[in-house]
Design goal:
6-stranded mixed beta sheet; 8 strands; alpha/beta
């Protein structure tokens, strides 16, 4: 990489300037988090039920005795051979967070429209243990604007990410819910599009590196992402600058 090289003193001066900007971003992020928590809620009047490995369960039962629930809307439709690779990238970060979320009174579940048997087949391949349930045959995905019919897409009536047009019939999202002591359930927040990067811890780490996400020039964002069992292993190492190379590269 052709990059300026300076003395340690010059580097510290530039780093200090950047830190001021980073602190601005941190304070803005904290403010937006407060505004997010201050949003009004919507009480759910519909009872949603899901197929789970333990049998049929309502949305309220997925809270697992807690007041707060996070849902990953995982793109796995009926008949798909495998789940969306970007949703899988999100899910790769989940298992280790569950014990920490529980300490703050938060339950987590992934929800997909595929039948439970298809979910379980893919889960076993990927080695995940987080709760993952099927909304097959219910309105859950439609009501939370992550699944769309062919007619909705053709007519332009499909509404994704609060007024956007989805590129396909299945889309990702993350939703939050609250259950009060009486058992009433409230929808408190949803995020879609790039908002789902909240689950992509790897991106946060890549943003610290010299090359960052290194996605410029790709035909689409996240083109490089694979299911974790489909990467070349290990990834090819960078060759020294004097290594031989094909002249037609």
């Amino acid at each position: 990489m052709n990059h300026p090289v300076v003395s340690r003193q010059q580097w510290l001066a530039e780093r200090t300037k950047l830190m001021a900007r980073e602190k601005e971003l941190t304070r803005l992020s904290d403010q937006i988090a407060r505004e997010r928590r201050a949003l009004p809620w919507v009480r759910l009047d519909k009872t949603y039920s899901f197929d789970t490995p333990a049998g049929r369960r309502t949305l309220g039962e997925l809270f697992d005795g807690r007041h707060q629930l996070l849902v990953q809307h995982f793109m796995l439709a009926p008949g798909w051979e495998q789940g969306c690779k970007s949703c899988s990238y999100m899910a790769d970060h989940t298992d280790a967070t569950l014990v920490h979320l529980a300490q703050r009174g938060v339950a987590f579940v992934a929800v997909s429209r595929a039948p439970l048997a298809e979910i379980e087949r893919f889960r076993q391949r990927m080695g995940w243990t987080f709760p993952w349930v099927s909304s097959h045959g219910t309105d859950f995905n439609t009501d939370f604007h992550v699944s769309f019919t062919a007619d909705e897409l053709a007519s332009g009536k499909a509404d994704y990410n609060f007024g956007g047009t989805p590129p396909g019939g299945e889309m990702p999202g993350v939703s939050a819910f609250w259950k009060d002591d009486s058992g009433a359930i409230f929808h408190t927040y949803s995020t879609y599009g790039r908002g789902v990067e909240v689950m992509m811890h790897t991106y946060r780490l890549l943003d610290l590196t010299p090359k960052g996400r290194d996605e410029d020039g790709l035909s689409f964002t996240m083109e490089w992402v694979r299911h974790h069992d489909r990467y070349e292993s290990p990834a090819p190492a960078a060759k020294p600058a004097n290594a031989g190379a094909c002249s037609g590269r």
